[in-house]
Amino acid sequence: MDQKNRHKIYLNLKVKILLITSIILIGSIAGISRIFYKKTYEQTEKLLRNQALNIAKSAVVAIEVDEFERLTKTLDEKDTYYNILLGKLKQINEDIGVGMLYTLIDIDDTEYTYVADGSGSVEIGYKQQKKDFSEEAAMAFQQGKAFTSEPYYVETFEKYYISAFVPILNSSNQVVGVIEYDYEGSELSAQLREITLLIIIAGVILIIVAFVINSLILRRMFKPMENLVGVMHKIAQGDLTVKINTDRQDEIGKINIALNETVLSIRRMIEIIEEASVRVAHTSQNIVASSSDAAIAYEDLANSTTGISEIAQKQACETEKTKLVLEKLDIDAKNISEQINETSQIANETYENTEEGVQVIRATQEQMESIEQSIAEAYTVINGFVNHMSKIQGIITTISGISDQTNLLALNASIEAARAGENGKGFAVVAGEVGKLAVESNHATNEIETIIEYINGQVNQVLDAIKTSVNMTEEGKKYTERAGKTFELIKNSNKQLEEQIGKIEVAVLEITDNVSNINVNMNEMEEVSRVIDSNTMNLAAITEEQMATSEEFNGMAQMLNQEAEGLTQTISKFKIK
């Protein structure tokens, strides 16, 4: 596989990781936004229902129950108390500014009867079907308790409303009527639209920022791995001139250092082998030339029986030259043997360095597994933190409810103080301060809830980042496994190189043995030359024997030359300059 295809695979892998993490992030943001929207809607609805209920309860406080009970029996619009009650309700309506406030009585099986309408649009005694009201109205009449309705849409006014029903109880704790307050939900709609817009904008910004950060992190993490795989691929092809970055201090840096030491050892070993192969080839050529000369001399000696003395002298001279050549060959063979031993030691060191690289990669894999376990523990701790934050949020909700009740009590106290006149002014001041404290407490709890929601959002992002880190750790483990396989290939190549060196060493030993045998024969030839005048038959026999030995020596020299050429071709596959 070429560099372009490898790069394409890495790009596809990064895109896959980026897509997976982005999908998880988008899903998480969408889920959080949905929960936030739902919680906000519920809190806003609850707040508006409480406001409607508080307004209705404050209106009940303003009603004189005995006079109201008397008015429900006469339903006389000229009654003095009717005008007083109508004025109070209108004043409350004007102070509030939104909604409608009116009183009802239940004196019919199918209809409710209006007593006083704060908006002034319905006259006293007007009847309306019970089915037009929410079921909370009937529950207020039947149970004598306050109720609020769910938000509902009125087509006539084209608005949403929330109704609060508070019973009017006489001294005998009997329901003599119900005061209803219809709170306009325009504020609810406006807040929901604003919150929806904010959620959309925040979600888009978070997705874009997370996508950019995720892309940068992936690019930074994959770059050293891509470089390392590219370097290993070049080494596997025989390029030993490749430069390896050894400045990093992490696990990738340790692998780079081990790989660099391996490359240097292989390069030194190949240089030594290359020099030795050149010397072996040169020596074998000299041997071939010398053996050819000796064969010619032996042939001339066998074909001629005249001038045996001159031929014997010439043979002695040639024998002396041959001995010198053989001595030089013996020295060269011993040097080659020593260099091959050194090369074998370097090959062993290279094998050990490669084995050390394999151990480093295994240690890296164990470290990656340890990192993965640490991330899992961090994930568990953060989940526990989220659970505690949920409990805190529940406590804040309880405090908010207490603040609302305190505010209601302060409002009731203010009304009672107003009714008391001059004597209640001091009490009214105290009630006002209590109301302010309740409002400030409510604001504080709302701010705390907002902070908790923000913390929850950040914690969820951390959880997502931890999940992404787990995925990236898995990818890192895969790359270290791939690096381990590459080191195994290098180790096997070193093993094969050691085997080739062993074969060459055996061949050199055979040459050394043959040179020793030839030296013995040369000594015998000198002895024969001394007595050749007296025994030409022995000279012929010895000459024939020497010719056979020379041919055998020539064959061995050619075999050594072939071995040297094969070794040269093998090491030529490696690029060291």
TrEMBL record:
Taxonomic placement: Bacteria, Bacillati, Bacillota, Clostridia, Lachnospirales
Listed transmembrane segments: 17-37, 195-218
Molecular function terms from GO: transmembrane signaling receptor activity
Domain Methyl-accepting transducer: 290-526
SMART domains: HAMP, MA
Protein name per the record: Methyl-accepting chemotaxis protein
CDD domains per the UniProt record, alphabetical: HAMP
Similarity annotation: Belongs to the methyl-accepting chemotaxis (MCP) protein family.
Cellular component GO terms, alphabetical: membrane
Keyword Membrane applies: yes
Superkingdom of origin organism: Bacteria
GO BP terms: chemotaxis; signal transduction
Limits of the HAMP domain: 219-271
Keywords on record: Membrane, Transducer, Transmembrane, Transmembrane helix
Signal among keywords: no
A Pfam family of this chain: MCPsignal
